[in-house]
Design a protein that fits this description.
Shape: flat
Number of helices: 17
Mean pLDDT: 90
Largest sheet: 8 strands, mixed
Order of helices and strands: HEHEHEHEHHEHEEEHHHHHHHHHH
CATH architecture of the largest domain: 3-Layer(aba) Sandwich
Distance between the termini: 52 Å
CATH topology of the largest domain: Glycerol-3-phosphate (1)-acyltransferase
Low-confidence stretches: none
Number of domains: 2
Helix content: 55-70%
CATH class of the largest domain: Alpha Beta
CATH superfamily of the largest domain: Glycerol-3-phosphate (1)-acyltransferase
Structural class: alpha/beta
């Protein structure tokens, strides 16, 4: 149980540093007493189980693919984290597991037995029924393993165990970016004993029905796009006109953003069926507008907010520059190294964030320790002053990030102002394009809401 005695507190800090906001909707469902089987989507490899683990007080055991257990060091880490291996057919076919169907079945039966024992003692197990992790806003077909484990555990106790399945929909707003947001949308528990009668007559049908119930619960709580093109189009609208489409957005919650994404996807499907020509025209308008912005090295936020800068804001940037510089000098190396390592280590988006998290958990403590030792030896010679210096490192590091975002926004506005001075006709045309798009979106929203 090394994970829960040593690593969990460290990961709680690391994840709350890595993500700007972690929001759990219906947290009380995640706090239900065991036995529980947590069934979640799997877009971001290691991040998905860790986010659930740090938000549940009771220990969670994880079902993980058997290939993680081949390396002795990784196996020791996985076992200390209460992980149970599951043997997949595709791993066996690739030579990474049992070589025959009989061996595969025997190994999985042993793993299922461990799950039954764990659940019998009131434990909590987390499983990812998709079977693979892919960074996309889609839900892949679910395998029946979660349902079969749940039904098998209950059958051992004549369906008197009280086991519940809790689907957890994890929505990332930018999964591979540092200081992004994540929403855990927890569904109502599914009582496994409700499938007892069907299981008695047809266990396979019971597993299929329970799997369908898990899938439906996840689908209602996820942003799901049909393909990459649709996802890109919806995200362009969200990032460009999200504030206009969602004027009542509560900055204290992520759920409004989630609802906006779901509504946009539903509206898109409606227009494809009822007004396809109008949808094509809007796509073309948006692409033309964004291409023109890119041609002039502008952003929509800079164009729309070109006159929002204030003297007070400028003074804050000037007076805050020394603190920003201090924060950058003391934090840049441990900050940039995780990103560099992740870029070199993988091309798969779903592995970027976990690599950055793990490397960052090494670089920041190591850098701060070395810097503190150097300051103590060559500058302060006083542990109290050194302690104040160490305390200043994370504070000024966060300030430097905030300062840079503010500075970048002001620079975007300045570029827009420069364009209006040098080429006022181009600026006026861009504003007209933007106004036309906003009007089109407003009309489309009115039409969609009126007819649905």
């Amino acid at each position: 149980m090394l994970f829960y005695t040593v690593m969990k507190p460290l990961l709680q800090v690391a994840l709350r540093v890595f993500f700007r906001r972690i929001e759990v909707l219906h947290r009380e469902r995640l706090a239900l007493p065991g036995p529980l089987l947590l069934a979640a989507n799997h877009p971001n490899t290691l991040m998905d189980p860790l986010l659930t683990a740090i938000n549940r007080r009771q220990p969670v055991a994880f079902l993980a693919k058997s290939t993680f257990f081949k390396n002795p060091v990784v196996r020791a880490i996985m076992e200390s984290g209460n992980s149970i291996p599951i043997y997949r057919r595709q791993d066996a076919e690739a030579g990474n597991g049992p070589t025959t169907p009989q061996q595969l079945a025997a190994q999985n039966e042993a793993s299922f037995g461990r799950c039954y024992d764990y659940l019998s003692h009131g434990g909590t197990i987390m499983i990812f029924p998709e079977g693979t992790s892919v960074s996309e806003r889609r839900l892949r077909p679910l395998k029946t393993g979660a349902a079969r484990i749940a039904l098998g555990a209950e059958a051992r106790h004549n369906f008197q165990l009280g086991l519940r399945v809790v689907p957890i929909a994890t929505n990332y707003f930018d999964p591979s970016r540092f200081r992004s947001d994540v929403l855990l949308n927890v569904a109502p528990p599914i009582v496994v004993a409700d499938y007892a009668a069907l299981y008695a007559t047809d266990p396979e049908a019971a597993a299929d029905q329970l799997t369908d119930a898990i899938r439906e619960a996840l689908e209602r709580r996820l942003v799901i796009t049909r393909d990459a093109a649709e996802d890109a189009f919806v995200q362009q609208i969200e990032r460009t006109f999200g504030d206009h489409l969602n004027p009542d957005d509560d900055p204290a919650t992520l759920y409004d953003n989630f609802q906006l994404s779901q509504t946009l996807l539903q509206a898109l499907a409606w227009f494809e069926q009822n007004a396809p020509a109008r949808l094509v025209a809007m796509r073309q308008q948006l692409q033309t507008y964004l291409a023109t912005l890119q041609q002039h090295h502008l952003t929509d936020a800079g164009l729309e907010g070109q006159r929002r800068g204030t003297i007070v804001g400028l003074l804050n940037l000037i007076l805050g520059a020394p603190v920003w510089l201090y924060g950058v000098l003391n934090n840049y190396l441990p900050y940039i190294l995780p990103s560099m390592v992740a870029q070199r280590a993988t091309k798969e988006a779903e592995f970027v964030a976990p690599i950055m998290l793990v490397v960052g958990m090494i670089t920041f403590p190591l850098a701060y320790t070395l810097q503190a030792a150097a300051v103590q030896r060559w500058l302060t010679h006083d542990w109290r002053l050194t302690a104040l210096y160490v305390l200043s490192l994370p504070i000024t590091g966060f300030y430097a990030l905030s300062y840079w975002n503010t500075l970048a926004a002001r620079l975007e506005r300045l570029r827009a102002l420069r364009l209006f001075r040098r080429a006022p006709a181009v600026g006026a045309e861009l504003l007209q394009q933007r106004a036309a798009l906003v009007a089109q979106l407003e009309d489309a929203r009115t039409a969609y809401l009126a007819r649905t």
